[in-house]
Design brief:
about 425 residues; mainly alpha; Growth Hormone, Chain: A; 2 domains; about 0% strand; globular
Length: about 425
Amino acid sequence: MNKRNYAAVFLVMLTFFVISFMTNIIGPLTPDIINGFNLSLFLVALLPFAFFIAYGLVSLPTGILVEKYHPKIIMVVAFLLSLSGSLLLSLFPNYLSAIISLFLIGSGMAMLQVIINPLLRVAGGEEHYAFNSVLAQLIFGAASFVSPLVYSYLVQNVNNSDSLASKIFSLTPAELPWISIYFLFVIISIAMILVTISFRFPKVELKADEKTGSLKAYLQMIKQPLVIAFFFGIFCYVGTEQVIANWMSQYLSVYFGYDPQTTGARAVAYFWGLMTAGGVLGLLLVKIMDSRKVLVLFTFLAILSLTAALVFSGQVALIALPLTGFFASVMYPVIISLALNSVTQNHGVFAGILLTGITGGAILPLITGWIGDNWGLKAGYCFLYLTLGYILSIGFWAKPLIANKTVSLFKKKS
């Protein structure tokens, strides 16, 4: 049994926090970006597209690099990419630099996602991996909750000469106060490069299910209808999550007049916070229920919550939209587990194919933005009935070879 490397575990947890902090800020920024650069909904949707398409392009090549190079090198390169992207948008705030910036930051975050899970397994010990993974997800959720609140603080204080924010981020253009968050990302990226360099890393030996596999193995897998079906499950989930989060502040502003820099930002923060809370409940439910039933139940409730936000008043929408995060919380882990438990081999290759489904976070907000430009953002949100309907269907057609182990709350009498 390998000795646990607590320092490396801390670094991984810190990295999870940073990934989430930098990834899930696009939604609260959307109204400011629209106004600052005078964009249509479709054009602003190209920003999350640039970010999430990087996951589809960078994840698999990074998997190959992980098998050849030390994880420290890959992590430093990843943070250098996030640094360059953040610096670009901070110093040259325009639409084109925003597209390039988010692609660079997304590439860095994708590289980090690939390396930190096997690093966590080795550093924390395999026997503690399940616990550490849950803890990492809680930290990930906490960062998603905090980042919109930090953004809200910055945009309200960066132009106030008496505030600490104005002194630290003095280069922020007065007419674009939201750029201050990218100056903060510059500081975070530099700090993470220095921290990463200073740590001693354990040697990471990838398990079979963590290796990327050959091109031939991928081609063989994508010929299987079941593989494609589960790929679209992840595609629909990530796309749905990002559509709700990215357009929430804009939706609440356009239809109900809520301030996107305060009320809208808090709503997005609650979306991610409730998603974290729902994940904890989901962990308990899959111990007492078939995971397919959990998926059907939570997806149905997410559909009801979305409907309430579209049909009723602004006060209802202010609760119902963030609440969809609570119900969406179980979708990703349940779909992944059902998928991997439905095949007998090439789990690493299958996992790689599933992770490319993250590109749904690039494409579906783009479709929603196009619909929003033509028929309104409410119509764009209605598109999610298709994606949620597909996720709901997985609970009915999935036939895992290994069902999730459950415990009975009441012992049967003999």
